Amino acid sequence: MTLLSSWCYDGSLPESYVMPPETRPGDLIVPMEKSIPVIDLQRKDRKETIQQIMKAGQEFGFFQIINHGVSEDLMDETMNVAEEFHAMPVLDKERECAKDPNGSCKLYTSSYVYPREDVHLWRDAVIHPCRPLDQHIQFWPEKPNRYREVVGAYSVELWKLSCRILELICEGLGLSLNYFSNDLSQVPQIIINHYPPCPEPSLTLGLLKHRDLTIITILLQTQIKGLQVFKDGRWIGIEPLPHAFVVNIGSLLMFISNGKLNGAEHRVVTNSRDARTTVSFFVYPSDESIIEPAKALVNASNPAIYKAFKFADFINVSIINPDDEALKELIYNSTA
Ligand SMILES: O=C(O)CCC(=O)C(=O)O
Ligand SMILES: [Fe+2]
User: Fold this and answer.
1) What backbone torsions phi and psi does residue 125 show, to the nearest 5 degrees?
2) Any idea what the Cα angle at residue 120 is, between residues 11 and 30, rounded to 5°?
3) By alpha-carbon position, which residue is closest to atom 1 of ligand 1?
4) CA atoms within 13 A of residue 58's CA, in its CB half-sphere
5) Which of 89, 93, 114, 314 has its CA 20 to 30 A from that of 108?
6) Where does residue 122 rank: exposed (0-12), middle (13-18), buried (19+ CB within 10 A)?
C-alpha cells in the first residue's frame, strides 16, 4: 500500500491531488472571529447548557466543549499514540492493522474508494470499531506499545461522553432521554486522521466538503488548524482550544431531528509546515437500524422532511455505490 506519509515529504504536489478550481481551498486564511460556540459542560444550569447546545446545533451544527470530564492526560496520551502510529513505517502500520481476518481495522489513504477517485485527498487514516471493547481490542494495533491501553481507555471515556451529550440533545429536542440508547448509537468507531505537511495547500484538501454519516462526531485535535465549517455560504475556521473537544451533528441526527439540528458541512485544509493528526469518535448505528424523523417531532404542521430508511442502505448509496439520485430518493419524503 502506498500511504501519503511514506512519500510526501520530498515531493511536489502530484497532479492527482490537484483539485478542480471550484473545490480548491482558495483562501487559506479564513475568519475565526465568528467561530463556533464553546460550551462549558460543568455549568450548574443544565437547562442553559441544553439551550446552548441546541442553538449551536441549529446555527452551526458544530460546537466545542470544555470541562467535559475526560482527563487531559488521557487526551494527550491518545494524541501521542495517534501521532506515533502514523509515524511508523508503512509495513508496520499494515501489519498492525491486519490482525482481524474480517478486516474490521482499516488502514487507508485518501478515502475508502481510492481507486475510484478522480482526485485524491491529502490524508491517511486508520479506523476501527471500539465497542464492546473486549470484542474488538484484540484486533487493534499493538504498536505503538501503549496503543491498546491508551486508545481503549479513551474509547471508554468517549463513549460515556457521547451518551451524556446525546442525553442533553434528547432533552433539548423533547425526546425520551434514552432515544439513542438502542441500536442507534451502539457501533462507535475510532478514526485517526493524519495530514502530512503538504507542498501546495492552496491546491488540495485533507478532506472535501462533507457531512459525517454519523449521529454525532467528537473530535480531538491539537493546536494545528485545519478544520473549517461551511456557514452562510462561507468557510469559518475552527479555532483549536487546548483540551476542548469539537462536537458536530452528523447527517443522521439531522434526519432524526427532522432538520431541527444541522448536520453541518465541513472540510479540512492542509498546511506546508506541520503534520496534523486528529482522532474522531464516530457515533454510528447498527447496519439494521432504521433512521427516521422522531415521531415526537413530526405532526401536521411539521411534516417529516425525511423518509425512514435502513442505515446500511444509506451507507450503500453514500459510499459503497455512490449515487446522488438514489440517495435523494432514499432520504427525502416527497410528500412533505
Ligand atoms: O481532521 C479533522 O479535523 C476533521 C476530520 C473529519 O471531518 C472526519 O473524520 O470526518
Ligand atoms: Fe467529518
Assistant:
1) -150, 155
2) 85
3) 278
4) 9
5) 314
6) buried
Beta bridge partners of 62: 248
CA 217, distance to chain mean position in Å, is: 5
Q: pLDDT at position 115, please? A: 84
Residue to mutate, 83, 280, 282, 319, ligand 1, most ligand atoms under 8 Å from C-beta: 280
Which amino acid is it at 222?
T
Q: What DSSP state is assigned to residue 241?
A: -
pLDDT tier for residue 7 given thresholds of 50, 70 and 90: confident
CA–CA distance from 148 to each of 111, 151, 219 (Å)?
24, 5, 19
ipTM over 0.85: yes
Pocket test for ligand 1, best of 62, 112, 219, 283 (most atoms within 8 A of CB): 219
Query: What average pLDDT does the segment 266-272 reach?
Result: 95
CA distance 227 to 270: 9
Separation CA 328–CA 180 (nearest Å): 24
108-145: per-residue pLDDT in tens?
999 888 888 889 999 999 999 999 999 999 999 999 99
Instruction: Give the pLDDT of residue 33.
Output: 60
Q: Render pLDDT for 55-89 as a digit per residue (tens, 0 to 9).
A: 999 999 999 999 999 999 999 999 999 999 999 99
Query: CA 101, CA 139: separation in Å to the nearest integer?
Result: 9
According to CATH, the topology of domain 35-295 is Jelly Rolls (2.60.120)
> With the CA atoms of 307, 334, 296 and 310 taken in that order, what torsion angle do they form, in degrees rounded to the nearest 10?
0
List the chain domain ranges.
35-295
Q: Report the SS3 class of residue 64.
A: strand
Q: What is the DSSP letter of 212?
A: -
Residue 88, classed as helix, strand or coil, is coil
